[in-house]
Amino acid sequence: MLSDADRTRLDALFADLDAATDSFLGYPVSKDFDCAELTRFLAFPLNNLGDPFAESTYRVGTKQMEREVVAFFAGLTRAPEGDWWGYVGNGGTEGNLYGLYLAREMHPKGIVYFSEATHYSVLKNLHFLGMRHIMIRAQPNGEIDYEDLRETLRIHRDCPPIVFANIGTTMTEARDDLRRIRALIDELVIREHYIHADAALCGGYAAFLEPRPAWDFDDGADSVSISGHKFIGSPVPCGVVIARKRHVDRIARGIAYIGSLDTTITGSRNGYTPLVLWHAIRRLGVEGLRERAQRALALAAYAEAELRAIGVPAWRNPNALTVVFPQTSARIRHKWQLATQGVAHIIVMPNVTRAQIDEFVADMRADLAPGEQDRCIG
């Protein structure tokens, strides 16, 4: 039994989290998930031990659901028929680590190229893996500078390039164009190469955009990482990584005592998150996800227009949920939990409402300098 003091602490924590969840706009986390039907599964020590496509002597898991989740995302990413593999992991960082790991095993002498707008965890992953790397300039919108990439590839064309592409950068949701990257590699007649796509946020809805961005296997990716707790939503951070199976086969090895293959980053893996993603996919389906994306994009456009109407120079990349604007006061940054790095942004996730946008815009308007506010009103 918990003591009264410990119960009080839990009650206070619940109240704090409830309040904080109501007022964040600065992070790409969907909070409109409904896992009520799944709470009974928390009674089990769910562990998807080993490869999701190989059974194990440990049977308290959700591998069947995990395989269906991976197959669903393989379809969204246009993975090659008969040549894809994947698993549900802890999130985008693990998915990116896995893609880079495969690339290193294929090209031990390769050089990793990534833009300066890339997520901070990528440098950590490169340090873990001991991979040589070169940072490429980013354009003002956050997209990689293709001319800088081309010149750097030309200088080092004797080493296999491993291009880490952003399909939605952290601060501006810029998308690197995989077809353009492949064209640069082909132009320089570089035969051995690897492209990993970090589609943490955008991978959940990029397939539904018109025009469709160049971001998936059909556009040249060798592996793709997608977060599950972002566009789709989950009470626990999670993600899906998908790769060409022939690359994964190079690193697979059998582990006798668990009766499975060692193909994943961690041996023991969360068996609850595949259930959460499976439940969401079955409820929503492709059309539900498409509608979810369209609704969020329409509200992002509304937020951008409303901010500009009060004099805030807000902007978005094409078909982005992220609305970018200059840094705000500490008061607004704290209330709305805004991520800030040179600029600030809100990310209009599917759970965000028009009322929240209106309240945020009203706060921004009240925060403007008096002279600027008068000009906006007039």
Explained architecture:
The protein has 378 residues and is an alpha/beta fold. It has 2 domains: 4-33 and 286-366, Aspartate Aminotransferase, domain 1 (Alpha-Beta Complex), CATH 3.90.1150.10; 36-281, 3-Layer(aba) Sandwich (Aspartate Aminotransferase, domain 2), CATH 3.40.640. Helix content is 40%, strand content 15%. The longest helix has 37 residues, at 273-309.
DSSP helical segment count: 12
How many domain units?
A: 2
Kindly report the average pLDDT value: 94
**Cα separation of the termini:** 63 Å
Low-confidence stretches: 373-378
Question: What is the fold's blueprint, element by element?
Answer:
Blueprint: H1 4-22, H2 63-76, E1 84-89, H3 92-106, E2 111-115, H4 121-129, E3 133-136, H5 146-155, E4 161-166, H6 178-187, E5 194-198, E6 223-227, H7 229-233, E7 239-244, H8 245-248, E8 253-255, E9 260-262, H9 273-309, E10 322-326, H10 330-336, E11 340-341, E12 343-347, H11 354-367, H12 370-377
Helix pairs in contact: 2-9, 3-4, 5-6, 9-11
Short description:
By secondary structure, the chain is α/β, with parallel strands linked by helices.
